[in-house]
Amino acid sequence: xxxxxxxxxxxxxxxxxxxxxxxxxxxxxxxxxxxxxxxxxxxxxxxxxxxxxxxxxxxxxxxxxxxxxxxxxxxxxxxxxxxxxxxxxxxxxxxxxxxxxxxxxxxxxxxxxxxxxxxxxxxxxxxxxxxxxxxxxxxxxxxxxxxxxxxxxxxxxxxxxxxxxxxxxxxxxxxxxxxxxxxxxxxxxxxxxxxxxxxxxxxxxxxxxxxxxxxxxxxxxxxxxxxxxxxxxxxxxxxxxxxxxxxxxxxxxxxxxxxxxxxxxxxxxxxxxxxxxxxxxxxxxxxxxxxxxxxxxxxxxxxxxxxxxxxxxxxxxxxxxxxxxxxxxxxxxxxxxxxxxxxxxxxxxxxxxxxxxxxxxxxxxxxxxxxxxxxxxxxxxxxxxxxxxxxxxxxxxxxxxxxxxxxxxxxxxxxxxxxxxxxxxxxxxxxxxxxxxxxxxxxxxxxxxxxxxxxxxxxxxxxxxxxxxxxxxxxxxxxxxxxxxxxxxxxxxxxxxxxxxxxxxxxxxxxxxxxxxxxxxxxxxxxxxxxxxxxxxxxxxxxxxxxxxxxxxxxxxxxxxxxxxxxxxxxxxxxxxxxx
Length: 580
Prior knowledge:
single chain; alpha/beta; 5-stranded mixed sheet; 18 strands
């Protein structure tokens, strides 16, 4: 594939890759057979959408895409036991992971039960004292006081802790990779069980919980009863899906689209309070879920009190919601400061070790377990390599990993655990968690590098910048952005449309804050467009465009709507540039 606009190494060192000949032909056919603009046709063609499917793709109906819950093993059994507990007013405990997916999953159950005038005990383990997932002490204590324990976003590998809960029935609603055997409990509903076909492997835990509630409502209807309104709960499913970086394809895309509409109604006190402390002033988008709301919900589990996020999402009390949101906002600011220090130290260590190995990793004493996952994400983004970051407390280290597309990190971590190099470990393709003893650190990382190298992780250069085509400044209108949004939401597995603006003149360039750049550019004629480049001075983009000397550049990025003082304008979120 030839370099797009002949850019083989941009100012960020990336090769630009444009649409293939096949995609261009498909886009042409879409343009001829629909009334859609060419830019949108390019995006649809990249997603493999033919002309006869375009209309349905741009307006996905959840009823057409929602799978039959019973297609998942143990689902009917799980919903039946759940309803039995509801009918007999048995004591229910919800054991949830401390991240957004876990909190949203727990909130779904608590909100559903509250609509039935019932309640449940919420238990979220402390990240530092208890670690991820069920533990024997907590499960035994919960079983002694409850009839049913529902583990959400965890539990699939928790054989011993679930065995310790023998005094109660246990249901697992999860999505993490399953092992060769399942824990001995009433039901394990997980699209990533080894005996599942993988058709729903992309669901997050909250989507699995939602499907169980769909099945529960269906069973209730069969008995002539009416269950709670599930459509009104899709805001929680959307938040979890985006924050857990589940691919926005198939039913996930429909769940998030519908969930964003529900969220825009501002009916859930916790999300309203969270949006307000996040200073969200426009309709919610997947960007808001992933970068404003999600990190704040996560902050409690990272460095504060583990159950704050779930409580915020579940509460019906606006006053409690406001107090919890304020607390999470403060914790998120604190988390950013801790993360910044760990990130600088981890990057320095990783650079000393070398950034061209199949795995980039860093480990040190005292790094907060609540931020190692985020720092691993930053290392991954900077190097286009799978990354692991580990914080040690004494001889035990707790770490988190993030992967790149095409490299299954979770399976490799699970293999390390099976080989005895880790105390424990698991996850999914793009993310994993692990516990390792100090004396096993070097052997474990060496073995992990070996496993990932077999998948091709050692051969990856800087990530190519994939572009949907070219645009001229005059074509970048609010109408076009709104039309492109119909192909969304965008995120994991569904990259936002990116366009190149060729051979433009830089009319204005100004540094904003420490590292950002504001630019106005033109095609040399009348049309002009404004752009913002975050972190421009962390790369060669900032100095090159600020000191352009009249030279022309190719600019690339995503179109955005900038809202200021109640007025909307088109803005390019500049991601890369190259001399023309």
